[in-house]
Amino acid sequence: MLFFSFKCRYILFSIIYVQYSCNITVCLKYQEEYMLAKQNYTRTVYAGSGGVDAKDREFPHMALLGYGKNFSEAQFHCGGSLISDRYVLTAAHCRYSPGLGYVSYAVLGILFRNQKLKQENIYGIKNIIKYPLYKPPKKYHDIALLEMDRRVTFDIGVIPACLHVGDEDTNQAYATGWGYLGKAKDLATVLQKIPLWPVSNETCLSKFSPYKRHLPDGIDEASQMCYGDDGKPRDTCEGDSGGPLQIMSKKVYCTFTILGVTSFGITACGEIGFPGVYTRVSNYIPWIEGIVWPKEQDQFLSSNIYFQN
């Protein structure tokens, strides 16, 4: 048994003590792959909109969001990130789907879009909280919290992510989602992961100059960021909205840190040289903490995690 103790201000657990099983060999393999990707990303061949299939339990914080009154008839159009035992972080524009209504369900612990689900994978949405300054059609402050109808039981396939506060290297990140696979408009059946790199605000704004309706004041550096790949058609696509832009945490073992929330891009996703726009999570830490962890706001919470082989 290995023991790790840490303090995490952008806290991923709303309880003091958490115990779950973790395949350490698999986790270390993932970490090695991410390091190799940073050193030489040409080792991996990316297809479609630039993504490859994620591995089982590789992103245990991923949530798939469903719309509709009955789960048997629900349609799934957005993603999200589990950040506590009660809340999912997503985009504000994902709170509602035309013709289907407000988001009704969050599905956790899955890899395949259409896999057979257990009741424990399905959570109803009890409360939808969008950031107060989100005013569509403007794309600023595109962030929201979804409170689920019951507490989540953590295990190897369902683990919350940390939130970025600006103190880790963000040169390369990964976006994940079950959205469309590029121009073919085929929905991903398996969770996709896409390596992306930061794009300057000046370059990003030049690409989105026709979108004055959504960005009348340009890119807001404090609350937005752009990621993409100038050399390859890599991008998040329709259906990936609300999902995370993330890095492997160097502080919390076997855990991802969420940098951004997938907000929007051009209609023809995957165009070379066109980045995506993401809501910068670090700008909203006080707001998130005030809702998700009100008793621990502005404090450090110690958490002990036990990993068992």
Descriptive key words:
disordered N terminus; 309 residues; mainly beta; six-stranded antiparallel barrel; 2 domains; 33% strand; Thrombin, subunit H; globular
Sequence of strands across the biggest β-sheet: 12-13-14-17-16-15
The CATH architecture of the largest domain is Beta Barrel
Helix percent reads: 10-25%
Largest sheet: 6 strands, antiparallel, barrel
Average predicted confidence as pLDDT = 78
How large, in whole angstroms, is the Cα Rg? 18 Å
What is the assigned CATH homologous superfamily of the largest domain? Trypsin-like serine proteases
Could you walk me through the main structural features you see in this protein, from its secondary elements to its overall organization?
This protein is mostly beta strands. It folds into two domains: 31-56 and 161-281, Thrombin, subunit H (Beta Barrel), CATH 2.40.10.10; 62-159 and 288-308, Thrombin, subunit H (Beta Barrel). It has three helices and 18 strands. It has helices at 24-39, 201-207, 285-292, and strands at residues 2-7, 17-21, 52-53, 62-67, 75-82, 87-90, 96-97, 101-108, 122-130, 144-148, 162-163, 173-177, 192-199, 224-228, 244-248, 256-264, 276-280, 302-308. The strands form three sheets. Strands 12-13-14-17-16-15 form a six-stranded antiparallel β-barrel. It has a six-stranded antiparallel beta barrel with strand order 4-5-6-10-9-8. A hairpin with a 7-residue loop joins β4 (62-67) and β5 (75-82). The longest helix is centred in the N-terminal third of the chain and has 16 residues, at 24-39. The N and C termini lie close together (7 Å).
